[in-house]
Structures
1.
Amino acid sequence: MEAPFISDPQELWQKTCQELQKLISPDAFRRWFAPVKPLSLEAGRLVLGVDNSIYPFWIEENYTTQLKESLALAAGQDLDVVFEVAANRGAREPAAKEPPAEERPHSAKATTVSDLIPRYVFETFVVGANNEFATAAAKAVAKSPARIYNPLFIHGAVGLGKTHLMHAIGHQIVKNKKGGKPPKVVYVTSEQFTNEFISAIQHGEIVKFRKRFRQADLLLIDDIQFFAGKERSQEEFFHTFNALFDGSKQIILTCDCPPSEVKNLEQRLVSRFEWGLAAELAPPDIETRLAILKAKAAKLEVRLGDGVLLFIAERVKANIRRLEGALNRVAAWAALNDKKLTQAQVEELLKDFIQQEARNMLTIETIQQKVAETFDIRMTDMTSKRRPNNIAIPRMAAMYLCRRLTQKSLQEIGAAFGGRDHGTVLHACKKTEADMARNEHLRQQINFLLQKLETAR
Ligand code: ADP
Ligand code: MG
């Protein structure tokens, strides 16, 4: 990029807006970016002023990529963006909870955690039955890194708070450190690790690469399922892991499934991951969803009736990111319109969220019924302890299908199959996969069911 260096925030923002307008609709630009005022530009950071905290939330949620890209094009370099909300009298967004005076003198600290999202802290993480265990584990690790659970392996479906919890540990460890050099926190996704590794090889910078990862005090690797099939990256990561582990450094990993279920991952890595503790994040129940919405609404400083929040909590279930998205949309509408928000209005605003949810509604019971029909066994066989093959095989297949097609946790699936424990469900899934590889007829039956159930949602 060869754009000349711009030091005037006004000019930089004007150029950025020109780029932005090529990327987003005129309506979106007018609504979300036209009211933004550039305030200052220093130390690689552009500070933008807005009147209301709905702007940073909405922009972060929907336009982060476009904003970063436009800014990089205009500035000729990557810059950070910080929002300042007028109503907060200069408090920094989104880290509004921290008094600003606290933050400035620790700029050395700030740079070590710059990869961590400021609002992903324990204070904003709502604890419910679905994440209680994982939260307790995370707090324990934050309190005594590399002492109790190493690695900590957080797993669960998309949008349930894995990245949030992982960042919260990072923030807490930095915060706990009193005096001395701030701890070096390295956060990457497995994809970034892979990309950096490949690029290091290409540019002969492998020594630098290793130094970056092996000198970390805390290593956070997000979404390790994307290591699947990337053998050289896995090998490199294996050595990184060992170096850190041997040096008593904490390692935290997240994944969309438990260690033993990760596809195409070397056995030696799986067994390393099993050294520590695996904690699952399950989908939140209605109380937790409502608590999350209330916390978010308070932070957005919008007044939404309890009825509206309950309506959203009842309809958006499987994914907290989507729950937030739904709230943001309603909150944005409320912030920009003086009219009273009616139930019909909310329904209209959330039409696509509600449709998407309906598609996700496949239940364990539906799966059990379809499997029972196909294999000609009774529904009661799904929960019984009887173990002849003509019953046990379909029952295991049904557990396998629940695992693949719903967001239910292993515990929940086990419970729905006559109170079996999560290990039994895991075993059933593995056994079914192995049977499918050997038995063509079974494979066809299960694939047929998969297809049928997929289209039924
Ligand atoms: P994942 O990494 O599992 O896909 P994230 O950590 O990105 O999910 O979480 C998705 C969104 O939901 C984030 O904005 C996060 O702050 C929010 N979130 C998830 N769990 C909670 C929770 N328990 N309390 C508050 N917010 C949450
Ligand atoms: Mg994530």
Note: The chain has a mean pLDDT of 87.
2.
Amino acid sequence: MTTASRIGLLGGTFDPIHLGHLAAARAADEALGFDRLLFIPSNAPPHRPDSPRASGYHRLRMTALAVADAPGWAASDLELARGGASYTFDTLTALREREPASQFFFITGADAFAEIGSWRRYPDLLALAHFVVIARTGTSFDRIRGRLPELASRMVACDASSSSACRTAPFPSIFLINADTPDVSSTDVRRRAAAGISLAGLVPDAVAGYITEHRLYA
Ligand code: ATP
Ligand code: MG
């Protein structure tokens, strides 16, 4: 008997990708055990007033550099190639059509998930994948439960030690993972790059080199 592939997905602007993104992906992977994990830079994020600073081309290349050494992890151009506004509903629909036998896990930080009520096709999009919410400084799980009481019954607290319970949770669940990810943001990385401050310890070395080489946020 073959079992369905478990595929983690991390969407984001990745302007640029940083160590917080990688730690969030790792925490989800450790708790839930993915066969593959795709990092999907958005083309035009619907919830942002400004366009990304770096082009889609550069954001995808930085993402590919950041995951190059991790087996099973890859950058995906799905949203950039589709163009237009990048709605998670459309992305999950496309992936399910492409791989009907796979199980998808859409990973977000707690700050992003707190806004899920405003995403396109809420709440229908929650039926297309498991959602995996990673703790992030500034947004507590209590706040998420308080803002989204209608989803509380689907939420499953999950970490490396409760892994087996998480792996048998019904579809679709919302996993809450209380990992200690570094308090890094792309906004802060862009600010530092513009000020000529070192990005060491915030982004992978290959990404820092790429930003310098292409003068991305100068
Ligand atoms: P910006 O400052 O430009 O908003 P960001 O650092 O928030 O950038 P995004 O590309 O907006 O990065 O984030 C993509 C996803 O990764 C979101 O779901 C976000 O919540 C999550 N994420 C980003 N940084 C962290 C972190 N340090 N810990 C946990 N999750 C994170
Ligand atoms: Mg953000």
Note: The first strand starts at residue 6 and ends at 12.
